[in-house]
Description:
The chain is α/β, with parallel strands linked by helices. It has helices at residues 14-17, 44-51, 63-75, 93-107, 123-137, 142-152, 167-172, 177-185, 209-224, 241-254, 268-274, and strands at 2-7, 22-25, 28-31, 34-37, 57-59, 80-85, 112-117, 157-162, 188-194, 200-207, 229-236, 261-265, 279-285.
Amino acid sequence: MLGIICDSLGDLPVELAERDDVYVVPVMVVLGEKSFRDGVEISRAEIADFLENNFARTSLPSPGDVMEAFETLYSRGYDELLVVNLSSALSGTHNLFKTIGEQFASAHESVAIEYVDSLSLSGGIAMLVYKAISMKEMGDSLRVISSDLRSRAGTKNFVFFVLPTLKYLKQSGRIGRLEGSVGEILNVKPIGTIDSDGIFTLSGKARGMKKAVEKMVDRLIDAAKGKKVLCLALYHSGNERDTISLVDWARKRISSLSETLLTGELSSGILVHGGKGIIGIGALIA
Length: 286
C-alpha cells in the first residue's frame, strides 16, 4: 500500500492531512530562544502576537519526528512511501527527509520510497499531494506517481502570494532595507512567486492590498489561459475582515478555472515569514 509523507509547510487541507495514508511532519518555529513544533505546540494567534514586536524564523523538523513518520506509516501497512517536501532551494528539509528515509529503508528491505522536491511551498505542495492521492485512487504505481509529480514541479505548478508588509522580507535580506522602508511608507504590497527553480522571487508589486490581490489573480489567470487546470489553491493568514473579504473576492474570480479548490489558513511556518494578512493562490496544470 502507498502512503504519503510531507512537511507542515505543505499546508494540506484537513481532509487530506487527516487521511490514514498521509503523515505531516511539523517544521520547527523559533521564537526568540524557544522552538515549537509547527501547528502542534504553539497556536497561530500566539505567533501573531509575538510578531507584533519581534521577528521569528523556522528551522528543520526534528530528525526524530521525521523517523516517526516513516515508522508510523510502515506500521499501518504502507510499504510504499511517497515523500513530498518544501522546495530544496528554500530549505534543507527535503534533504533531511531523504537522509532519514535512506536510514529507514536500509533497515526495512521491503519498503520502497520515492522522493519529490516540490520546488514550491504551501498550496503548491498541497496540490501535488492532491494529485498523488487522485492517481493512487486510480491505481497508479508509486513510480508512476512520483514521476508525474516531478514532471509538474516547477513547470506546471504555479503559486503567487501577496504579502501585507515588507518588513519580514527586509529583515531576512530578500529585499534591501531602503527599498523595504520606502515601500512601507508608500503602502507598496509585494507579489511573490516561486520560480521554476523553486526559489522565492518578487514578481511584482502594487499600492494597497486590494490592487495587489487583483494583480496577483490576473497573473494566475494569465498563466492558466488556454490550459486545463487540475486544481486550484487559495490560502491566507489571519482572519481580519479585510483579509477574508479579499479571499472571498479571489475565490469568485478563480473558481471557474477548476472544479477542485484547496483552501485553508497558512501554517505557522509561513506566518512567521509574512505576518497576518498574506493571501496566496495557485494552480496545477494538466
